[in-house]
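Why do we care about 3D structure at all? Because function follows from shape, and shape follows, mostly, from sequence. That is the central idea of this module. The next example makes it concrete: a single protein chain, its amino acid sequence, and then its structure expressed as tokens.
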Amino acid sequence: MAVKIRLRRMGKKKRPIYKIVAADVRSPRDGKFLEALGLYNPLTDPHTVDIKEERVLYWLSKGAQPTKTVKSLLRQKGITLKNELIKRGANEEEIEAKLSEWEKLKEAGASQKVKKKKISKKAKSKEEVSEKSGKPEETSEDSSEIAEDAKADESTAEVKGAASDENDADKG
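And the structure:
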């Protein structure tokens, strides 16, 4: 019997919550399963993943194949790394050391993502042009102030134009 570790959809309409299950390949998505291994809620920010690690490792050792989505969830939790280390024959101390190192790297990567600013295409092109021409760079704050000044000028021009239209109507 071929076993897959996959998601079983639950929850309300347009409000999915998934149960991570070990199921026979032939059974339908929301049908019969062998064992519930955890929960996955994609709607929370950040998404919630609760997995019974020991049972997942058991099923993986028995030859169960995770689906793409479940494989990515296992990778996020570090279970795939732990499974690979167990397969290689590493002892518990080595596994714990590798997992703690992996967690540190994961946290460092997450902090770098937060630090990166999202820059618009226009700002990137302005930076490239200023680098080529050798002119000092214009910061996003400066450009936002310039844009606000331009908007203010436009709004006063509109008001002046409206006033002149009224004057023209009074004269005519």
